[in-house]
């Protein structure tokens, strides 16, 4: 088994592709030991080949399976000498469509992976995070956690849930010496987004396609900061403010399709 040999270490779910893969590559390039976990074993093997077997531990993990998750945490602990500098809850799935027409098994799958999976990870990782000085619990939320988005209502709800969890735990975990933060990405060019959506998106503005490396860079910056919410791109912060201060206006703008023009003006200086 590969060992961390005293290096800082990060445990990443959904590490085989998209944001998780870029986070793994970035942190490994900074000298960290990477724990990469996903259900896509072939892509994990490819990731390990790029990082180097001596620099990582990769393993299949279904985040909804608590027993399997506990085994993954134990394997990571054995490789790192009982430390975890950063937990990145990144695994997620995207299933959309009108809520009334959505198969209920899709609804449950979204909740299980996107929220219960995060609960499993944080709850099981607390002992390692607590034992590691300056550790961080980090979660991938979404721009859809600013205001509930039509067409992805349940996905949006799960991301609201992890954002709220991050806020609460950022207070609770202070007593344990664990820092907490999250990232709210916009339209990130990853496999979770249909190719036709990326192709049709505007090349400018808040909801322009963003390469996943920009999110990975935010994760790196988050570890070295006390900032709670990270917006990628930064203009997403304007949507969060509008949703909080003027929920009815946000609702009506979304319903009329006019929110983008408003946000392009209001979000220009957001950060």
What this model shows, in words?
It is a single chain. The protein is built from ten helices and seven strands. With 271 residues, the protein is α/β, with parallel strands linked by helices. Strands 3-2-1-4-5-6-7 form a seven-stranded parallel beta sheet, sandwiched between helices. β2, α2 and β3 form a beta-alpha-beta unit. α1 (18-29) packs across α7, α4 (104-131) runs parallel beside α5 and α8 (236-245) packs across α9 (247-256). The longest helix has 28 residues, at 104-131.
TL;DR?
The protein has 271 residues and is an alpha/beta fold.
Features of the shown structure:
271 residues, alpha/beta, Rossmann fold, 2 domains, seven-stranded parallel sheet, 10 helices, 7 strands, 49% helix, 14% strand, Short-chain dehydrogenase, SDR_fam, NAD(P)-bd_dom_sf, oxidoreductase activity, Sc_DH/Rdtase_CS
Helix content: 40-55%
Number of strands: 7
Radius of gyration: 18 Å
The topology string of helices and strands comes to: EHEHEHEHEHEHHEHHH
CATH uppermost class of the largest domain: Alpha Beta
CATH architecture descriptor name of the largest domain:
3-Layer(aba) Sandwich
* Residue fraction in strands: 5-15%
Distance between the termini: 42 Å
Broad structural category: alpha/beta
Number of helices: 10
The CATH homology group name of the largest domain: NAD(P)-binding Rossmann-like Domain
User: Low-confidence segments, ≥5 residues, pLDDT <50?
Assistant: 261-271
* Main beta-sheet annotation: 7 strands, parallel
Strand order of the largest sheet: 3-2-1-4-5-6-7
- CATH topology of the largest domain, anyone? Rossmann fold
Query: What global shape is seen?
Result: globular
Residue-averaged pLDDT, rounded? 89
């Amino acid at each position: 088994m590969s060992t961390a040999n005293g290096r800082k270490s990060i445990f990443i779910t959904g590490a085989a592709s998209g944001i998780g893969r870029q986070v793994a590559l970035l942190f490994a390039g900074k000298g960290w030991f990477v724990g990469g976990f996903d259900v896509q074993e072939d892509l994990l093997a490819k990731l390990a080949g790029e990082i180097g077997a001596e620099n990582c531990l990769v393993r299949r993990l279904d985040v909804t399976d608590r027993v399997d998750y506990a085994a993954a945490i134990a394997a990571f602990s054995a490789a790192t000498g009982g430390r975890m500098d950063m937990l990145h809850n990144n695994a997620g799935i995207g299933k959309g469509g009108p809520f009334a027409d959505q198969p209920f098994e899709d609804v449950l799958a979204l909740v299980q992976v996107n929220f219960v999976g995060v609960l499993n990870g944080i709850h099981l990782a607390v002992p390692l995070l607590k034992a590691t000085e300056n550790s961080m619990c980090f979660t991938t939320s979404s721009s859809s956690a600013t205001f509930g988005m039509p067409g992805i209502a349940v996905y949006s709800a799960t991301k609201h849930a992890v954002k709220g969890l991050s806020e609460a735990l950022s207070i609770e975990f202070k007593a344990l010496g664990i820092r907490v933060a999250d990232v709210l990405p916009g339209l990130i060019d990853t496999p979770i987004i249909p190719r036709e959506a990326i192709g049709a998106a505007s090349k400018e503005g808040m909801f322009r396609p963003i390469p996943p490396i920009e999110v990975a860079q935010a994760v790196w910056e988050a570890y070295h900061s006390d900032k709670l919410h990270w917006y990628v791109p930064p203009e997403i912060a304007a949507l969060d403010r509008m949703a909080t201060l003027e929920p009815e206006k946000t609702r009506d703008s979304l319903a009329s399709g006019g929110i983008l023009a408003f946000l392009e003006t209001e979000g220009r200086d957001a950060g």
